[in-house]
Structure formats: structure tokens, C-alpha cells
Design a protein that fits this description.
Blueprint (H helix, E strand, L loop, with lengths): L4 E4 L14 E6 L4 H5 L6 E5 L2 E2 L3 H9 L5 E7 L2 E7 L1
Antiparallel strand pairs: 1-2, 2-3, 3-4, 3-5, 5-6
Length: 86
């Protein structure tokens, strides 16, 4: 479900660095499922399907266990939002 999104550790220059745990969207492929769902470069994924994520391994584990889609809790700028990717 996250194909087209390049994920990594939160960059030290990101405004959320040191303030929160999560995984940063480093890059997003135009036209991918992740992009079509609204995921953007610089977003911080803090949970998937209500399971906190702190590493790429956490993301893989949470995404693997969902067949119908995933619910992402995202930090973007000064706000937070939920995205559903099917």
C-alpha cells in the first residue's frame, strides 16, 4: 500500500526532529497509491492502523498485517491528520 513512498528516519533538519517518534516520507513517486492518497514528502508517519511506528521495521510489520488498507496517522507542518490507503 505504501509503494511509491521512500521512507526513512526523521532527518535532523526536519522541524519534528527530536520532538516525536516516527518515520519520515523522504520522497514520493508521482501517481503512486501513496501519492494519490495524499501522502507528501516531509510527512511524519507516527502510527499505522493505530500501532505506533518508530522504524522502517515497524512500518513493514504494521502494513503487512493489513489486507484491506492502512490507516496512517501523519504529522504535517503544525498539524496532524489521518490518511487511508487502499
Amino acid at each position: 500500500q505504501l509503494s511509491g513512498a521512500t521512507l526513512g528516519s526523521i532527518e535532523p533538519t526536519h522541524r519534528q526532529a527530536g520532538k516525536t517518534d516516527g518515520v519520515e516520507v523522504i520522497d514520493i513517486e508521482r501517481g503512486s497509491a501513496a501519492a494519490m492518497a495524499g501522502l507528501r514528502k516531509g510527512d511524519i508517519i507516527v502510527s499505522i492502523n493505530r500501532q505506533p511506528v518508530k522504524s522502517i521495521e515497524d512500518v513493514k510489520r504494521a502494513a503487512k498485517n493489513s489486507e484491506r488498507g492502512i490507516l496512517l496517522n501523519i504529522l504535517r507542518g503544525d498539524g496532524a491528520l489521518f490518511l487511508i490507503i487502499r
